Amino acid sequence: MPKGYWTIWSTVALDLVGFGIIVPILGRYAERFGASGLTVGLLFASFSLAQLLMAPVLGYLSDRIGRKPVIIISLIGTAVGSFITGAAGALWVLFAGRIVDGASGGSLSVAQAAVADIAPEERRPALLGMLGAAFGIGFVLGPAIGGLAALGGPHVPFYLAGVLASINAIAAMVRLPETRPADLRPARRTRRTPESPILRHLAIVGFITVFAFTSFEATFSLFGDRRFGLTEASSAAVFLGVGLVLITVQGGLYGRWAERYGVPRLLVAGLSMLVLGLALMSVSLVWPVLIVALLLLSVGQGCASPSMTTLVTEHAPADRRGEALGYQQSAYAVARVLGPPAAGAMFDRVGIWSPFVAGSVVCGVAMVLVVTWGLDRRMSVVGSNGCETVVIND
Predict the structure, then answer these.
(1) What is the pLDDT, as a whole number, of residue 186?
(2) Residue 195 predicted with pLDDT over 80
(3) Which pLDDT belongs to residue 384?
């Protein structure tokens, strides 16, 4: 294992535990201040919008001044945002807290860039996949910890998330290595969008994929109630199962599959499973069919997400890797802003099956684009001088 990898991994995992504490209870917390369903949706969207704007900036800064200081700044921002949310006495303060938290929410893409800095090329897919597993762990442990903390009062989970982020920031100051050598940092320049068409294509595919998956996340509890009589507790258990499958795939299986089949083919396989899983879910009437659909969705997302991250790190110039991952994170943020409202509107006006059919269709479009653009076979290595060598994988 590369030196410093587990420190980066544990930093990300603890950060996402704090995120997992907040997300499941934020809507109910906002209702105490008179928030409507639309307002709650806007509250979640404000986080993603702030992340959309700031993730490329944080990525660019990590290329310029190093990964470690940017990760520390992000963790401090998360702590401040969590404390503001916990201390809120009015709805506008809640929005302020979520915007601060979202603006500092680019730590994951910077951590991915740090792993890409230290990982040997042949081990990069496996190590990035394991970093993705930290996301699943955060969403398995976070809601459980948040639920217990809420027994102490509605503000307590947010204060706990702030304390965790503060401890994480202090630990990062002491233990986190700087993976970006000073001689590899670019000279001062105007920040601009990565120029490689492959990076733009990956951002588009990433947007579509996350749009479809967040549509599933946003409407599944409603769908489960209508079709299968699921309660809040049983819906949470389903998401726990999805998280455990994601951890298993990204934490262990993905690296072996990438070594055997190659990252581009795993991207296509992941998209194919998302297409089938969403289509199957739309027609599921009995539990065995639903379970197969959920497994396809979980494994598909577990393959598609680290594949796109790996391809971004390999296609980006060495001196702009953080910036490229920041733009990819921005594409995901746009999808998280647009996906849930669109899925909710379709659920209400078209039918309870419609968000999943739509998600299946758009994932099919993403798969066609991957093949059309050659992302299923083309790998490139881009140097710091911007020269790109393309290798075709047969």
Answers:
(1) 58
(2) no
(3) 42
| Amino acid 25: pLDDT | 79
* Domain endpoint, select from 178, 205, 239: 178
Structural domain boundaries enclosing 272? 196-394
Residues 54 and 133 in one domain: yes
pLDDT surpasses 50 at 220 = yes
- Encode pLDDT of 326-344 as tens digits: 999 999 989 988 888 888 8
**Cα–Cα distance for residue pair 67/108, rounded to 1 Å:** 11
- Determine contact, residues 104/76, Cβ cutoff 8 Å: yes
Residue 367: count other Cβ atoms within 10 Å of its Cβ: 23
211 pLDDT more than 50: yes
Q: Stretch 228-232: mean pLDDT, rounded?
A: 82
Do 263 and 300 have their domain in common? yes
Q: What is the DSSP string of 76-137?
A: HHHHHHHHHHHT--SHHHHHHHHHHHHHTTTHHHHHHHHHHHHS-GGGHHHHHHHHHHHHHH
CATH number assigned to the domain comprising residue 142: 1.20.1250.20
Q: Do 11 and 45 belong to one domain?
A: yes
β-sheet bridge partners, residue 380: 390
Q: Does one domain contain both 29 and 148?
A: yes
On whether both 157 and 214 belong to a single domain, the answer is: no
Q: How many domains does the chain have?
A: 2
Q: Do residue 260 and residue 360 come from a single domain?
A: yes
Beta 388-392 vs 378-382: how paired, if at all?
antiparallel
pLDDT of 306 reads 93
Token pair 């296509």 in the structure block, residue: 268
Same domain, 16 and 147: yes
Kindly list the distances between the CA atom of residue 273 and the CA atoms of 131, 289, 360, in Å, as whole numbers in the listed order: 22, 14, 10
How many whole angstroms separate alpha carbon 275 and alpha carbon 270? 9
Inter-CA distances, 80 with 7, 86, 114, Å: 23, 10, 24
| Cβ 311 vs Cβ 184: under 8 Å | no
Measured CA to CA, the distance from residue 25 to residue 153 in angstroms comes to: 12
Average pLDDT of the chain to the nearest whole number: 86
As given in the structure block, the two tokens for residue 113 are 């860039």
pLDDT attached to residue 174 = 93
Which region, left, alpha or beta, applies to residue 66 given φ > 0 means left and ψ of -120 to 50 means alpha? left
The pTM is what? 0.82
Q: 141 and 6: one domain?
A: yes
